[in-house]
Amino acid sequence: MASKPLTVLLVEDNPLYMRLIQRLLGRSEHPTFDVVTVETLAAALERLAKGGVDVVLLDLMLPDSMALDTFFRVRAQSAETPIIIQSSLDDVSLASRAVEGGAQDYLLKDRINSVSLLRSIHYAVERAHARGAEWHSAMFHLAQQQLLKAAYIAELDDNIRQRLLFPERAQIAALPFKRDKGDQVETVFAYRVQHVLSMGPTKGGIRYHPDVGLGEVAALAMLMTWKCALTNLPYGGAKGGVRVDPAALSQGELERLTRRYTSEFIGIIGPDKDVPAPDMGTDGQVMAWIMDTYSQHVGYAVPSVVTGKPIVLGGSLGRNEATGRGLVYLIEHACRSMDVNLNGGTAVVQGFGNVGAHTATFLAESGAKVVGVSDVGTALYNPQGLPIDKLQDYVREHRLLADCPFGEAITNRELLELDCDVLAPCALQNQITAENAGRLNCRILAEGANGPTTLEADEILKERGVFLLPDILANAGGVVVSYFEWVQGLQNLMWPLEEINERMRNILTDAMTRTQRRAEADKLDMRTAAMIEALNRVGAAHQLRGLFP
Ligand code: NAD
Predict the structure, then answer these.
(1) pLDDT digits (tens, 9 = 90+) for 188-199
(2) Cβ pair 421, 347 in contact under 8 A
(3) Which of 19, 208, 379, 419 could link 374 by a cystine bridge, Cβ 3.0 to 4.6 Å?
(4) Which domains does the chain carry?
């Protein structure tokens, strides 16, 4: 922390609490604080306008402003200054909504002491710095908000909560690879992030996409931690990415890029360290190149360094379609518990890549009419049900759904709002927001993609009674079968497909049953219940291992 005094703006109209904070901060020797106190919002805005405030301690109930309005006006005045809400026990839900809206943390006035106050300020200031540039990502912000919410409800140990807000290890490489033309060398940014190293090796896909950044990869690594913990897999979460558009590269360029990626991160990946898999923009061929590069490096074949490999290289039966298959197992489970008949019901799938196309296929096999599907440029609607196998053939030939003759073209926005029993977003993050959540017309929202729904949208969907299959549960089939692939690879086993699917169904059904039980018992939404199931496992592992040294 900086050695110069930190300027704290304390916005508080209760003189007793004001004196308490001044006393607690006044005792600190490292860091030291300049505490500026004001009692009204108007005075706070005036002081912030002058600049130089490092952190704001904000009471939301002031003589001239109440509740969230106070927070939003302070934030609007100085968007970069971290804000810590000072809350009484009665106002906790208000404070947590301010955190969802971007406040760094909140402190309970009744429980405040010098340790909790100094820690909160320290982390708020550090995080505000870290949020800049590379870390800045709506998805990372969402992942942190989801963690803060669940950690509060689960009363997670504060030491562990702070530890989990950022990944344990994050590596960035500026990665050069040769283009096909002439002697042109392209340099792109590449990432590997390992969120939790305490549960076993880390596990997570590699994403090739032009918008990838450290924050997005960190968010995805965090989601992997919860996914593995929720399904009781012996892994922590990781993720990798390259900021590149794979569609603009030839096969040769993709191969050179992938091999260079592998060699840049070779020190931190490996069957016992960190095991990559495919994600958006990568596939079995990319995994095969990673496996080969790693194997060349160590001098013998190491299939277990990646999962999602082609079968002939030690890939598992059922891995390619596992995420979609697992999603549909869970949709079937949800339909049974809600008395919805999937056979003859309707479904809409956003995204027609690995997850989306398999989800649409298995939904159709379950007897559902898939009335809408989309990809990056096209959305198709057919109230009689789209012929999914013909769409698959079309995409195999043309790569995209553009000009596909089997349905009426609609917009992506219209697609999400179609009347249906099941809506499965299987493309990108941040698709269902406060802006469109009120117009969704589905009974079940099944998150095949990672992070498709914002926290604000969650609240709206909850009020509207939409049943949520949250991402960390809904798309966990992929990592579960990746785990099977890893186990088979380490032991040179080959399980039949039926056994793989049955084992996956059991693991997912168990995770869903535990999540539903917790949601009902503690009156929680499914996302928070799933997060708490996962957090309890990660928290227990941290406690048991203790802190080295
Ligand atoms: P993919 O690259 O195979 O397919 C992505 C699909 O989304 C493509 O059809 C693409 O055209 C479409 N798309 C892109 N932008 C879109 C937009 N703006 N609107 C509509 N469609 C759009 O990727 P994938 O492996 O299917 O992954 C999709 C999502 O599922 C990602 O969030 C990923 O993190 C998540 N996920 C994947 C796996 C897996 O096993 N592949 C496992 C768990 C979660």
Answers:
(1) 999 999 999 999
(2) yes
(3) 379
(4) 6-132 (3.40.50.2300), 138-313 (3.40.50.10860), 322-478+505-535 (3.40.50.720)
